[in-house]
Amino acid sequence: MTTSMGNPHYLPAVCIQVTIINFTVTFDGLQEQLLSMVVKQERPQLESQRSELLSSIAHDLQLLRDLEDKSLSLLQKSQGHILDDQDLVDTLKKSKVTSGEISQRVQQSEETEKSLNKARLKYLPVATRGAVLYFALSDLASVDVMYQFSLPWFQNMFITCISTPEDRPSSADRASSHLRGTLRPSSRGSPDLAPQKTEKDPPLRPSAHDLNKHMKQMIDRLTYSVYRAVSVGLFSNHQLMFSFMLNTSVMRSNAKYGDIVSQIGVIEDTEWMVFLQGSVLASMMDEDTLQAHDGLSAMQRLESQSQGVVFQRPRWVTPSMWRECQYMEATMPVFDHLLRSVMSNRVQWELFARTEDPYHIMEAAFDPAVIAQGEENINHMYKEIFHWENLSRFQRLILIKTLRPETLVASVRMFVNDQMGSKFLSTGAFDLREVFEESSAKTPLIFILSPGSDPGGQLLRFAKELRGSTLHLDMISLGRGQGPKAEELISKAQILKGRWVFLQNCHLAASWMPKLQEIVDNFNKPKADVDPQFRLWLSSKPDPSFPISILQTGFKMTVESPQGLKANLARSFGTGGTGAVSEKLYDDVDKEASWRNLLFGLCFFNAVIHERKKYGALGWNIPYEFNDSDLEVSILQLDLLLGMEGEGLPWAALRYLTGEVTYGGRVTDDWDRRCLHSLLRRFYCAEALEPGYTYSPDEVYHPLPPSFTFSEVKQYIDGLPPVDSPEVFGMNQNAEKAYLESQAKELVDTIISLQPRLSGGMIGSNKSSDELVLEMAADIMRSLPETMEDVEEEEEEKQTSTSKRDMFHCLSDVFKVAAVPGEKRARSHAPTPVADGPSHPELEALQPIFQSALVTVLRQEIDRFNNLLEIIHKSLRELCRAVKGEIVMSEPLEEAYNAMLTQKVPAQWKQAAYESCKPLGSWVKDLIQRVDFFASWSDLVVEAANRVVRPPPPPQPMSRGQTQVDAHDLIKTEARETPRSFWLPGFFFPQGFLTGVFQNHARKQGVSVDSLMFQFEVINTNPHDNEESLNDVKQKIPVRDWGFKGPPPPKEGVLVFGLYLDGARWDPSNHSVMDSLPGQRFCRLPEIHFLPAQISTTVPVQQTDSPVDNAFKTKEEDPEKKSYECPLYRTSARAGTLSSTGHSTNFVTTVHLPTDHSPEFWVTRGVALLCQLDD
């Protein structure tokens, strides 16, 4: 049995019954094969001599073995004394002489082989480049299953490239070339067709300089040919990655085999790993290394220790960036004193942070005079200049990826351009005529589809252009029951003259794919009768069921939707009637005067909603697959409604049909639908018909005058900027930065997926991978309690109150008693007495506590956390045993092992945990904070229960000299069972907490829960909620202090803290939402008062001692103040499973925030509240 899959996965039951042999070519093996091809082409007699020599050596070695076997056979058959057998003695003497001659001949042959190999190795750089290119291709299958390339295909391309004659030289060059005897193959076909040299007329050997030049030409031709052939079959978001991988693969091989020919530099393994896994490697650094690389000079460190001086890093450098820089400084000498320079030389690094092109700014040394100009009155003792001009080009990328990730993609483009030339950045667009001419009847032509793309129209146009009609093209869309019809079409088309068959959507016929593979394999059989003009066209989305052999032998082309507003509009107004808007449709004189304006606006709206998805969650919560049919149907609706009689334009009908039915029918998220309607109102409105109206604040995009002809519209589209402004989508520059950062992350993550598993040696540590995993597992188990009840109590609490564990047991019994009504409850769930705990009558006194809905929420949250903690500890204990070899390493344990090495949360933990996008280190720290918050809350419940069971003694009179304690810092002294302020992000199920608040209020007021809604007020009275603190989102939130210390909580409702604004900021001075500052996407929101109130009623104003209540109820409403209904999500991903309510499971609730702008302004900006950030 054989398989074409490079890394097949079989069940264990199959593996134990068969022997699996890996015949996949290795790098060294392929290098040797390609070297033989090159030498055979360039020095055929050298390769011929080597082949003859190897054959001679093998023949002589066989003769030696035959002589040995004959001698042993004679000795075995000899009878009597062997010296008496004269024939045996003569044979042995003869064998000895022959053996000596053969051994001498073999030794001479081996010496000759060494000299031949030495001559052959001069062409090793060509073979090495070929092997590097092939393995770069073979890795692409890990990116997309459709990226399959076979070894025979690559070998044919390799032979073609090395045998292709170079550009015709001048007469002088030809003369000198002939004198030097440089070989120039005269045929483009097989190397066997090149003129052969004879022993009587040996070629003159080229000089080393000419040989290197010749090899460089072959290498460049091979590299570009491979790039061009492969890039046509890659999606646009993978083409830059492929160019970069070709470049870096060559540079990494240069570090091992030398850079004799290409002269593009080298990349060491340490540099490569820091570029890819910098954050992971930095998270594994020990504390001693961190302290040694703190960015302080010896004098600054002395001042910090002796005088308490605090030296802070620049605000734009995040903690994760700083830690990566520490690792770079510790492991790479070229980055010595990097942190000290960042700390001291603010002018140099502010320049680095602000420039749009950090890659090229590092080509020249930083001018020290800039410091004196920018900071004339500042002491320059500690101003250390970082000499970034000494960095290699790739080392520049490392620094950019760490400190300026939003510019990484642009910098990688510049890097590839500098290293290999701009031709390796050209888009891999294909030309159907060229593809057709290069293909054959036995070669399938495969369209790889992206969402919303359809090559059918393009193929029909090409068929008509080539033959004058489309009658020779048979098209069939595969699906259920279409397989036999497709097979019949192919069998007829092979015999008939000049027929084409186009099988669309092969991914919809997975069960028929083996039959398709059989049909294509029959094309290449010796007796196959296929018409030379026959062509088989296939289209499919990426699908693992598509036959690998067809992908390897076929010609692949990717078909994608246009990228950018300009390309989308150009597609809508396509030439030759191929677009949704034809010249006849646009110039129809019978239409209303507003027809052209609204038609162009509709096409612009279609382009905007297509391009918004590049902004990720800021654009759409869920990426939708809008296609051409949506635009075509909307145009028909616009035509129909404008033709109806009536006064004025039917704006409501237009917006409903387009935004709610046609496009809105694909939108499943309510908040995305709200955004879609807000965008549509910008194009379907009366103002759009008035002169001077623009689609964007920069006035670049605007409606076209009705007098514009179809050709003038196309000219306007051709003149649009190639790069879209974020304002036209309703975004700001921070959204553009987020988009660029996501592109950089996608690029790096894709390259990481092609790399081997991270190991201790790659990390640069003396520890193995197993040791690192064991150490991380021990740290996590040490930092997390086994259960919530195991959280350490304060020593004074242990002495003065019933233990938390005992009280938890008691409260659990109370919950169980309350859960079952009647006598059955008393029999089956009788409370269990606890030593020194409350008795059964005392449990009845606890009814007011456990009847609180929030205490029930606490108990449920504790159960969820206990379940998660149990799973974490159990899996880590099993993982440690498996690493030590005590138990079998199961699949979940292996996944956890790999996840910990790459700083990801194991899947087993994710299934039992809350939603989060944090890496493992930040996730564990966040979990510790959550556990601490609920442990502190449970302390309040235990203390409140203790106060009920054992009332405190009466207060003693204060002695002289004793000071009065501020009541704000003694919240726990009150008989409360809830925190002062709630950390909403810390809840497993925040919706349950909000429901609990409603239930408490409904019981207190005697109203229905369904009749309640929240009113919101952002509180600016806390000192830690100043503007500087709110903008510093990387600052750790002291959950215990903010939750349990401070002014008394409100009498009604709850306070909530720890939320973040995404896409906007909170202005404390203006008490409203404002546009975010440049370079700052997130902003922390101050405490919010969630006040339950009955729907359509006002909250009665009551006197209270709480400043929070007073701030809320005495504030008069500003009639000009608008309110934005801001959705609250658990994570920045925003997307989740669609629940029965129509909302995403990631969605929590909505919060109304005051604003000076219209709500649509924030809707199109994608502004939302988040419970947690990604790091």
TrEMBL record:
Cellular compartments per GO CC: cilium; dynein complex
Biological processes per GO annotation: microtubule-based movement
Name by which UniProt lists this protein: Dynein heavy chain 6, axonemal-like
Dynein heavy chain C-terminal domain span: 742-1171
Coiled coil location: none
Species, as recorded: Lingula anatina (Brachiopod)
Localization terms from the record: Cell projection, Cilium; Cytoplasm, Cytoskeleton
Domain Dynein heavy chain AAA lid: residue ranges: 595-735
Chain ranges of the Dynein heavy chain ATP-binding dynein motor region domain: 1-102
Main localization category: other
UniProt keyword list: Cell projection, Cilium, Coiled coil, Cytoplasm, Cytoskeleton, Nucleotide-binding
GO-annotated molecular function: dynein intermediate chain binding; dynein light intermediate chain binding; minus-end-directed microtubule motor activity; nucleotide binding
Residue span(s) of domain Dynein heavy chain region D6 P-loop: 441-558
Composition bias, Basic and acidic residues: 197-209
